[in-house]
Amino acid sequence: MKNDNMIKNLIFAMLLIIPLEVVEANEITWTTWPATVYYFAHLSGPGAPYGDVTFHITAIDEYALYVNGNRIDDERNDGNWRTVEEYTFPVNSNDIIISVEVKNHGTGNGNGLMIDIETGSDQFGTTTVRRMAEEHNGSLHLFPVAWYYAGWDITQSPLLGDEWYKLNYNPETGESILTDSDIYPLLPSVLPGEFKEAIDYTLSENTEVVTGYPGDFLFVDNGGTEGGGISLRSIEGENIAHGKPAEVMVLTDGNISDTFYSYTQDPINSTMWIDLEHIYRINEMVLYTGVSDPSNWEKTSVRSWALDISLDKFRWEEVGFIHEVGVSNIDKGGFNYSSITTPLEWARYLRYRISDKSETFPAVGEIMVYGLGYALEGVYESPWLDLGEPDTPKTIETISRDGDVPEGTRISIQTKSFQVQPDGTLSQGHWSAEHTEQSFAFNSPLPVLQIKYRIKLFTEDTYQTPILKSLTISYDSSVNVETDVPEKTAFLGVYPNPFNPETMISFRIGSVSSPQNVQINIYSMNGQNVRTLKNEFLGSGNYRILWDGRDDDGMVLASGLYICRLVVGRALFTNKMLMIR
């Protein structure tokens, strides 16, 4: 009892002479996430060869336009996405190879690219349609009009490199890298943009605003949040059936030119289903029917069909019907494709059901499904960051975020870094565990030269998305990194302080001939030892210990002042900490 009273008296005495230490740290905060997306098209129609071709273009927020390997935008490119620039270029070829680099500032203007092309005969422009039928010299011709995008740094592609915009085009054969999807797996462009009414230009009938998103596969939206931020991408305008399981897989493989499913008997009342794998709000199914020769479409197309939907693949409901394809929808392409639109319906499974007899057996090239809402998950990965001090080792303290996370959604953050080892060498760490809390301590006590982070967004319901509005990294750049072990043992501080709900205790063990016994204890204001954080032998080096604001029994402690007592061998250090809940 006498010893306990002595400890209490000693603690209260220290309180009188030790000031509350608030450790200062540098901070860097991101509220916008600029990104670059690359768009491509290889266009050639029945009106080829082409002479002078005129391009009308705008994009959010900046663009660079290349045609047949030549950059053609100039001082007229004013950086204002509300104005549309016009450029005329002598193509003098059967092919129009278009490459566009679009830089989105991430400030909430939205997303989008629009190019309207005047060739004199063929109708070209950015579009989510994959093929087009056009009458030329008395015959109907079918030709691809597909656009593609890459949300990653295409300049790093081993196939393209710095001359990515040329797409390896061979004018003698008319081939480019886009003609071989096996070696260049870009996705079709998605989401007609929402700035159509804001630009000072009237789009031609076959031109749409299109959008691509940054990332490798699980794309996120970096430009659609007002004021900046990252959210899940909208699926509006995206074929959500692409690559999904189907009764016949060629119906969702994305290839509308070479792969068809051909019936071998009269298909009346037969069905073909697809599985979207999740429940979506859908409002349209498109059936690419017929074969690649438009002159046979009247015989080889599905003439009449119904759209059925289901949540469980057992109970089906008819929600739409189209009769006499090629006649009833002639204004939307006729036999080129047939579409059934419906008010928004919840569905996971969809099927078409053929309702007319056929004298000849039809063929189907692709099933495409559209809806509203958000993708279920997305990932953003930052580049390597030096925090503005490229040659300075930094001790990363905490990483925190702000934003909206509705119930049923989640944001997680991972980090990794180039760490400075005690011997002065650099090593790249692994990705940390995923942190879903708003603020967390960095996972390594070692100083770092560079850091990167990975943001994952997830939703259980396609009608809502989490939004990351800001991300802050706190760090100390006053670290003295020695190429050998440090000479002096020191208490480096507590950060954050005040804190809620956890804080990091940092210390250094100087040059010692043998490991030292290290004890770290947390005392309450009445002198009670509420938590023992460390009691072991450690060698020279820098260390960081996390205290989560709990006692030895795992119980959450109340707000108030606490004393951190650090003993390293014969050296004693104390520090006040203020916990605010």
Structural description of this entry:
The chain is elongated. It is mainly beta. It has 4 domains: 118 residues, Immunoglobulin-like; 191 residues, Jelly Rolls, CATH 2.60.120; 147 residues, Galactose-binding domain-like (Jelly Rolls, Sandwich); 95 residues, no CATH class. The N terminus is likely disordered. The strands form 8 sheets. Strands 1, 14, 15, 23, 26 and 28 form a 6-stranded antiparallel sheet that branches. It contains 2 helices and 35 strands. The longest helix is centred in the first third of the chain and has 16 residues.
Relative strand content: 35-45%
Indicate the percent of residues in helices. Answer: under 10%
SSE class: mainly beta
In angstroms, what separates the terminal alpha carbons? 32 Å
Q: What is the number of helices? A: 2
The main sheet comes to: 6 strands, antiparallel
Cα Rg: 31 Å
Mean pLDDT: 82
Count all strands and give the number: 35
Uncertain stretches? 1-24, 181-193, 481-486
Counting structural domains, the number is 4
CATH class of the largest domain: Mainly Beta
What is CATH's topology name of the largest domain?
Jelly Rolls
Shape: elongated
CATH architecture annotation of the largest domain: Sandwich
Descriptive key words:
Jelly Rolls; disordered N terminus; 44% strand; mainly beta; 581 residues; 4 domains; Immunoglobulin-like
